[in-house]
Amino acid sequence: MKNLIPIFSKTFLLLLTILGYCAVSSQAQPFRGCAKGTEYVKPINASFEKEVLRLVNVERKKRGLQPLTWNEEMARAARYHAADMAHDNYFDHASYDPGKRKACKTFERIRKFGAGSAENIAAGSSTPEGVMRQWMNSAGHKRNILSKGSKSLGIGYYYKPGLKNNWRHYWVQNFSWKATNGSTGGGGNTGGGNSGGGNTGGGTSTGSKTKVAPKKISQGWKNYPFQKVDAATYYSGDRFYLFSGNQYSSWNRSTQRMSAPKPIRGNWRGVNFNKIDAAFYWKSNNKVYLFSGNQYVRYDINTNKVDAGYPKPIQRFWGGSRMFTSVDAALAYPNGKVYFFKGNRYVRYDFAKNRIDAGYPKAISQSTWPGIRFRTLDATVTWGSGPQSYFFKNTYYYRFDIKKDKAY
What is the pTM of this model? Predict the structure, then answer.
């Protein structure tokens, strides 16, 4: 749902004459090095790909734009990249080999197949409706989809059970300024996945009409000792912590029980906050970030204490003026993003780039967090590297599947 990276470039005025190609086996992955343009990945689900094209054209029609036609060259480029990401377990516009070795730049790859002008990628969603909702909720991706300069589109979807990767379902859109005689998309029921198998007509994605009800925290968490949760964080060792007031309690996944509450001060060395507003664990550095008021600390799990130089101001070190001065909840995603919630809005922070992504803040709603009916949040937490997250409000909580992009 939440990691979508648009890329833009000047239109390539490239005429590539293909005299024919020698099709590589459809299961020749993993690919190595830069694409040659001769690779062929057999469609995993051609109806999914054509349905995405149809949904793109529904959105374009709403705005009086000409429909895009199917571009088979761009579809081969898109399927190649979707398969490469799935097999080599990365998520990026550029191509990578194992060991995070960059193998090819984005348009260097695309131009091997044909004339491309822009690309959207996404991962995690299992249906055309879900991935289109992701793209249309992102300003950059939406801009690509609604570009007046695009004439045709190729789509690649890849999913192979048993592959060890983070997201399972990988999607690529490769746009072109080149007109084709292809179709404008398939219609009908796409079935399966998180759409509930319903009709996708009309360009909206309503998903299953069955409302998911939140659960009582006390019923889902044995020995839950608090009235409400202020913050929550995963902690290495198959457990996570819930904070309330000046106390905390740990949940052990093995025993499925909460521990007796303890005071924060004295047990979290160097944490002098009277209350924790938000928290999250970051796997790459094995640190826990704790937020209170307009400040935060970074807690080192290895040394079991707050790092030197803390606390620090939140806004100054988490994206500047576009960041909230204080936060209600923080949710770390395994795609390198952290979501910060304040009131009925949230922002998406890119940890590696140290900035708030374009198009934020956004409202907490059914379109941005499907199935979550809270409009403000007390706490959020992702279990380990996902895909399961929890959203808390007062005495209730939702479980949220990151890969399926919905509450359950």
Answer: 0.53
